[in-house]
Amino acid sequence: xEAIRFIVGTLLQVLLVTVFLLRVLLPLxxxxxRNQLSQAxxxxxxxxxxxxxxxxxxxxxxxxxxxxxxxxxxxxxIALMWLLGGYPWIFTPGQFGYVVLLTLIRTILNFYIFALxxxxxxxxxxxxxxxPGAALIDTLCEPLLRPVRxxxxxLGGFDLSALFVIIGLQALNIAIT
Length: 177
Fold this sequence. Notes:
The protein is an all-alpha fold and 177 residues long. Helices cover 77% and strands 0% of the residues.
């Protein structure tokens, strides 16, 4: 049963929730909508987001339908894991909501930690690469790195801003756990 919970949790949390998280993040960081990966995210999430958009209009730059879709998908993932025995201590709706919120925050933190690792690796292996994936990761990571670069400039040609951001995100992840 543990293996089934792992497979289902990985498929739901890592893949499905992350796609909906990208649907929320891409407009916020102004990612290029013509990017193939951006288009794939939009196509994959449209079946849930478009009906919600008819009811929930955007508020400024924030797409409320995408945020609600992300919360729905996260809640469905937690509910399925609960049915599989993954959260035996959830008894009340308050506990369920707490787990959904905490898991969503941890997913965002882990997503950015992973994206920053990819950003660093790509900057070492293939700096200046013109690929859809590299462009998307660059667009997602730059808003986090820019404020740190103002405080800590590159030292001897080495940009350590990603290291400090990763340390900060890991500390936040540990603090909320």
